[in-house]
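Figure 2 data, in text form.
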Amino acid sequence: MQKSQRKAENRQLRQKQQEQKKRRTRILVWTTAVVFVALIAAVIIFKPKEAPVAIDYDNVPTMGSADAKVKIAEFGDFKCPTCQYFSLNLLPEIKKDYIDTGLVSLSFLNYTIIWQDSNDAALAAQSVYHQNKDEFWKYYDALYRKQQPQEHEVWATPEFLTEVARSEGIKVDYDKLKADIENKTYQDEVDAQNKLARSKNFPGTPTVLINGERLDDEHALNLDKLKAKIDEALKEANVETK
C-alpha cells in the first residue's frame, strides 16, 4: 500500500514539475516576443531620419521659381513607362496648382536604368538643356509623349531623338543635338546624376523628392497623396497658400 502511494505521489510530483516547466517555457516565449516587438518598435520610432539629398538646383533643368521654398526633384528615365505616367498625368496638375502659382519648383535629373539607349535619351535632353534652357521642358514632354512601347528594345537612337526635336519645333541646332548624342558631350553630367541616385539607393524610376526627402511610390504616384505631401512641405516652410 505504501509502495503504491509513493508511486502515486511521484507521478503527481512529475506532473507538477512538467506543468511548471511548461509554464516557464510559455513565460519565456511571451517575454521574448514582447521584447522583440519592443525592439522593432524602438527601431521604427527612433530610426535616424535620412539627411536630405543635396541637389545643385541651379545647374539642372528647373521649372518654376528659383526662389520657391518647396523644391520637387524627379530622377527619371525617358524610357520608363511609369515616368511617362508621372509626366503626362500628374505633372500637369502639379504645374497648374503649385508651379505656375510660384509655390513650388520642379527639377529633373537623369537616372538611366531601363535599357542601354536610356543613356542616349539622357544625352539628348542634356544637349537641349544646354542649347536652350527654355526649350528643355517642351522636349521633356515630347520625349515622354513619343515614348515607344518596346521598353527593352533599342529605339531611342540619335536619329529618333533628333527627329523628335525637329518635329516638335524645339528651338535648338539639330545637327549639334545629334552630334552631342553621338559624341556623348554631356556624359559626365549624366554619370554624375546616376552616381548620386545610386549612392542614395534609389529603388527605381521615377524617384521623386520634396526638399531632398524621397517619397515612396504610394505618395509619388498618387495625385491626392502627392498634393498632400506638397501641402505639408509648404506648411513646414511657412508658405502662405490661397
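Caption note: The chain has nine helices and five strands.
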